[in-house]
Amino acid sequence: xxxxxxxxxxNVFYIGSKDANRKLFDQxxxxxxxxxxxxxxxxxxxxxxxxxxxYPKKLDEYxxxxxxxxxxxxxxxxxxxxxxxxxxxxxxxxEMFPEAKVVTNAKVKENVMNMLHVDEDKFIVINDGDELSLxxxxxxxxxxxxxxxxxxxxxxxxxxxxxxxxxFLGSHYTKHELFADYxxxxxxxAKRYYAEIIMPFRxxxxxxxxxxxxxxxxxxLPSHGPVYDKPQWILDLYADWTSDRVENKVVIPxxxxxxxxxxxxxxLTKKLEAAGIDVKVFDLVHCDEGALxxxxxxCATVVLGSxxxxxxPHPAAVTAAYLVNALRPKLRYYSIIGSFGWGGNLTGVIExxxxxxxxxxxxxxxxxxxxxxxxxxxxxxLAEQIIEKHKAL
Length: 393
Ligand code: FEO
Fold this sequence. Notes:
The chain is of the alpha/beta class. The protein has helices at about 60-70, 85, 90-95, 105-115, 185-200, 200-215, 230-240, 260-275, 290-295, 315-325, 345-350, 375-390, and strands spanning about 5-10, 10-15, 15-20, 25, 30, 35, 40-45, 50, 75-80, 100-105, 125, 130-135, 140-145, 155, 160-165, 220, 245-255, 280-285, 300-310, 310-315, 335-340, 360, 365-370. The protein folds into 2 domains: about 5-240, Metallo-beta-lactamase, Chain A; about 245-385, Rossmann fold (3-Layer(aba) Sandwich). Strands 1-2-7-8-9-10-11 form a 7-stranded mixed sheet. Strands 17, 18, 19, 20, 21, 22 and 23 form a 7-stranded mixed sheet that branches. Strand 10, helix 4 (about 105-115) and strand 11 form a beta-alpha-beta unit. Helix 5 crosses helix 7, helix 5 packs across helix 9 (about 290-295) and helix 8 (about 260-275) runs parallel beside helix 12 (about 375-390). The site of MU-OXO-diiron (FEO) has 8 residues, from helix 2.
């Protein structure tokens, strides 16, 4: 149990928790390095505030950390977002500091009241642009809906140019002490996080990337992962990921029961790679969904491969199609390839899952049993189609 608190700058402290052994987020997202739940303490000359709290399973440690460091007076609990990995400690803090008020926007207030049963009289509701004085520090609030929940907001200490961005610009990364190490590992963790959490709201993320770039910010303090003392680094990555630019890349998630679909995937991969296209293949039986999501950030084309189970696609392919649609990547083209034994509808079920994204449909190649020469020729035609489309990117 790490009970240290760490000063970031000028009486602003990190008081959150590291959870390096956690394996899964939301019972869905793999966490190769675990994660952190960032909570911050701001000591003003007159008032003290905490920005976001801690994950419910970490509250004993969180409480011990506050007690160990003699934090005996908190006037405000600023809640940037109601999801319980950040709001989970609000009831406990209100017990420890009965005079404290929860300062947040109307949507967070409603969500916290529903999720954690906090009384209405505990809240101070703010609007976009409102300010809260802590004496020598002024916290300004920026409502930033859908980056990533409708309730999301940022908080900004004007005097110190410190911006608390909630889940935006975060990462599930635990190799740091406090500040970002700006390593390739961190790029990957931040990109995975962007893909899983923020990409479905790409247009909002783009808007707020531009907004933060236009502000005077010396520190970005997200609610997961390291603090950025060079904010431009993460903002430049976000500017790229949220842009309309796609790479000369094809992602092929596939599942194959008797290797027929595998043979199609291998033929396609070989043809595309020979043309200089970056191909990322994911066997869905052993797939890290986070790694797949990360490749969707900037790929131009997805080719989904599937065997038939009963009269429809393999459930693993259906799950992958659901994921692709839900994450809303800036995909331009897609195709479906696969093999069946006796009949059914392989492509229709998958195609109908693209209810949100509308990539351009390329040729499908679905074969009966093991592929024959003419089937491989159809894969070659599909490869040529993709190569031509990618030339125009
Ligand atoms: Fe949306 Fe980290 O919570």
